[in-house]
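Protocol step 4 of 5: obtain the predicted structure for the target chain.
Materials: sequence only (see below). No template structures provided, no constraints applied. The aim of this step is simply to have a reference model before the mutagenesis design in step 5. Sequence pasted as it appears in the construct record:
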Amino acid sequence: MTITIDTIREAARAIQGAVVHTPTVHSRTLSQLAGAEVFLKLENLQYTASFKDRGALVKLLSLPREKRDAGVVAASAGNHAQGVAYHAERLGIPATIVMPVHTPFIKVVRTRDFGAKVVLHGEGVSEAAEHATELAKAHGYTFVHPYDDERIIAGQGTTALEMLTDQPGIDTLIVPIGGGGLIAGCAIAAKALNPGIRIFGVEAALYPSMRQAIHGEGPGSGGPTIAEGIAVKDPGALTRPVVEKLVEDILIIDEAGLERGVQLLLEIEKTVAEGAGAAPLAAVLANPSLFAGRKVGLIVSGGNIDSRLLASVLMRGMARDGRIARIRVEITDAPGTLAKVAGCIAEAGGNIVEIYHQRLFADVPVKRADLDAVIETRDRVHLGDIVRRLEASGFSVRQLGNTAADGH
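Step 4 output (structure tokens):
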């Protein structure tokens, strides 16, 4: 099987009605920020909140009856697991999903809720995949690869087919890259519909595996990333030549950029994106001259982000923007001083989130104290106004360092 626009159209017909035709929306505010016309393909609105629904269903539908009856096995830490489990249950196919032992509980629970048998094995997806392959051989299961499979690639390509049918004026496409299934399928579809379209991939700085493979560099990836969905060390053998041929460049985005993308999509577009899903927006904002004036399509590939992680990302974003800040005020340890500090902050329009004295463990005279306050402000300008008001009232003030605000 060779993947062409015809096989992608065939895949689209096969999954029609069973997979959401997600909207492609224009964002006025993000367009203003980016200096380009920004369109978002909201794959986070799929039932399992990820584009993985597409390829998983195409693959499962391709199996003959005897292979369906024998069952399937897949290895994944999240989106692929849920896509396979959900559609396998719909089609009455027994499914076993091997997940790394440290997979977040919520992802394990969701996968089980879709009717799959979950096996926890290995420290990472690579070890889980090895075990899944062993189970396939031992029990006669069909192994459903997350990206290095022509049916999977064709299914993922339906994302771009929909997007460019809905918005044919898009002249640039930006797609996150993990193993490469999504960008390979989308590149084939996009180039067939518009040979002049420019296609860019995006990888997390900690996992630049496709870029390394294409440029002949040794693998040097790894580490904790917010973009778990594209944290892949070994890009696909089938996907790599497609990327080499059709993709103009692969852009690398650091963790601060990914966090910023998640924050902006939620605050501006009111849509929840996981780190991988926010990577295309982060790439546009990090490379304004590259996309200036163009009609840019961004694939928001998924929205499966842990609630606690999302909360942390939002708070760190507020710290970066100066909307949450920590200040230290040197005061006399006397009655009424705390009230005076609080009054100054309130009069300047700030909101105190936390406040506490540093008496015993601070290097200050016994009759003085450090007053540490976490305050909420409108922005950095407003923060400066608050600090100046405190200083005008006779207090010595300094802003405490914040790693999030520094982008580290």
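Step 4 remarks: The chain has 17 helices and 14 strands. Residues 403-408 have pLDDT under 50 and may be disordered.
Proceed to step 5.
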